[in-house]
Amino acid sequence: MKSKKPFVLLSSTGLFIGVLLMILSACSENKEAEAKNYLGPEGIPVSQEMIAELTSPPNVPGPTGRRKAKKLIVNMEVLEEEGEMTDGVKYVYWTFGGSVPGSFIRTKIGDEVEFHLKNHPDNKLPHNIDLHAVTGPGGGATSSFVAPGHETQFSFKVLNPGLYVYHCATAPVGMHIANGMYGLILVEPEEGLPPVDKEYYVMQGDFYTKGENGDRGLQPFDMKKAVDEDADYVVFNGKVGSLTGDNAITANVGETIRLYVGNGGPNLVSSFHVIGEIFDVVRVEGGDLINENVQTTLVPAGGAAIVEFKVDVPGTFILVDHSIFRAFNKGALGMLKVQGEENKKIYSGKQEEGVYQPEGSGIQEMPVDKGVAQTEETAKSLQEKMEFGKATYMRTCFACHQAEGQGIPNAFPPLAKSDYLNADLNRAIDIVLHGKTGEITVNGEKYNSVMTKQDLTDEEVANVLTYIYNSWGNSKKEVTTSMVANRRNTH
Ligand SMILES: [Cu+2]
Predict the structure, then answer these.
(1) CATH: 3.90.1200.10, 3.60.20.30, 3.30.420.270, 1.10.760.10. Which one for 382-489?
(2) Which residues are the active-site residues?
(3) Ligand 1: distance of its center to the CA of 108 in Å?
């Protein structure tokens, strides 16, 4: 509901007037100002150094207000951690700063950001970061690639105001994003955004699990469903219920709210809507364009929007992706709880909290347990072994050794045309059964890393190795279940 016209200072207009005044007053101003107007944001000088405040969702760091551009140090740590998608459903999230979405970064136009990306030593995979607010190749991705136990550093100057997505861009990119590696970085205009009473950070993401929605236990990522865009969960802030019940965001009647809404995807576009509210202002796609009096705004995958509204009456307002099955059946539902005096003129009703959650928190009852299945049958022909082996590979080995067995330089050795693999079949079986540490040389390149023990049945090991040996130019050996059982019992 609208109270007053939002005041908007288009920074380009401001700049234009600034330039005009400069010309009229016929120079003699200080050199800094001249450089700035001549070069645009690139010329904005930075004073002092400052450590960026980073917040986890739904919190947002304090406004930059009227502060000058600074050298802003961002310390971001990548953590791979098990978390809960919903009651009884576990998922291993890959995160920027330990949360999904990752820590919110708030900058001001002209800031020189010195970005430190740390990959925790307990992590299994290399990562990097592509910030859409960066002007430069890969948005920082190539400069920030970092292996577990290492740290990288790069800098950039923020030149364009707006709300931007950042995400991991390490291959397979879709998988890193699907596991939660995204967040928002805000670049405030010189004069700052107009003040509001409450600001919150909400980011949508779609998740793909081996089991169906609600299947219990630790659910691995499902590549096939991700490729097919067949999401099991569509959620705000990383999990079902992150913004409902006690986790709801709050406000008081009469306050103005600003939501920084992002969409990490990887696949789905969000039709963002707040049930019972009208956005007084939408900063469309997080840019300079302002739309007013909007019911639902599109937030593209890898994009954002800023929505602002005043709350006039108390009650629970439901945040949804208005592709509505996602809200009621897959988790894309949050709550804004507003307290205060009723205003019968604006709304007369009879209100019921939670009225919009008739089907619970996004979990549908699934009568049969499909948790296991899949590899229970026994493969008979070589072709079947290849098929089952490929499924195991895509589920278990693929994250490190990559889709075509090509590996990742300096991190994961190739399985394609691997001289190490082809030289000794029993050794390969042992590696899959027990893991591997210490230096090895594969195709002339040295690796000294850790492959954890893979929790697979003898048949799964036989099938996955048969698949690998019969793919990508390897030596076409067939591995049987009894060969694996024999190694397991004797080594
Ligand atoms: Cu990553």
Answers:
(1) 1.10.760.10
(2) 127, 130, 132, 167-168, 176, 181, 273, 292, 296, 322
(3) 26
Residues of each annotated binding site for Cu cation = 127, 132, 167-168, 176, 181, 322
Q: Nearest CA to 43 among 18, 22, 69, 62?
A: 69
Q: Which fold has domain 42-193?
A: Immunoglobulin-like (2.60.40)
Distance (angstroms) between ligand 1 centre and the Cα of 175 equals: 8
202-339 fold? Immunoglobulin-like (2.60.40)
* Phi-psi category of residue 196: left, alpha or beta, with phi > 0 → left and psi -120 to 50 → alpha: beta
Distance 226 CA to ligand 1 centre (A): 16
Closest CA to 263 of 100, 105, 126, 138: 100
Which residues surround the ion ligand 1 when the cut-off is CB under 5 Å?
127, 168, 170, 176, 181
DSSP state of 393: I
Going residue by residue through the chain (491 aa), what tens digit of pLDDT does each one get?
554 444 444 445 555 555 555 554 444 445 555 555 567 888 899 989 999 999 999 999 999 998 999 999 999 999 999 999 998 999 999 999 999 999 999 999 999 999 999 999 999 999 999 999 999 989 999 899 999 999 999 999 999 999 999 999 999 999 999 999 999 999 999 999 999 999 999 999 999 999 999 999 999 999 999 999 999 999 999 999 999 999 999 999 999 999 999 999 999 999 999 999 999 999 999 999 999 999 999 999 999 999 999 999 999 999 999 999 999 999 999 999 999 998 888 888 765 544 454 454 443 333 333 334 344 457 678 999 999 999 899 878 887 788 899 988 777 899 999 999 999 999 999 999 988 888 899 999 999 877 777 778 999 999 999 999 999 999 999 999 999 999 998 87
